[in-house]
Specification:
Number of strands: 5
Shape: globular
Number of domains: 1
Number of helices: 1
Radius of gyration: 11 Å
Bound molecules: zinc ion
Oligomer: single chain
Structural class: alpha+beta
């Protein structure tokens, strides 16, 4: 089913220290993931991660975040 995702900008631990990134939180179960970068591709990468990790089989629409 389609689930909303809360997207917050957050500094993320990257290979070279803290870098700007995003935290995506599943509004269904509260599971969250971090992705490096804040480009328009970052939310989609996060959505894929969430889909893999969230216990539910959800579809995440993150295209609103640009
Ligand atoms: Zn979830």
């Amino acid at each position: 089913m389609r689930v909303d995702v809360d997207i917050q900008e957050e500094d993320v631990d990257g290979d070279y220290g803290l870098v700007p990134g995003l935290r995506l939180t599943c509004q269904e179960c509260g599971h969250w993931v971090l992705v490096c970068g804040t480009s328009d591709k970052s939310p989609r990468r996060g959505a894929i991660l969430l889909r893999e990790q969230c216990p539910d089989d959800n579809f995440y629409d993150v295209d609103y975040w640009l």
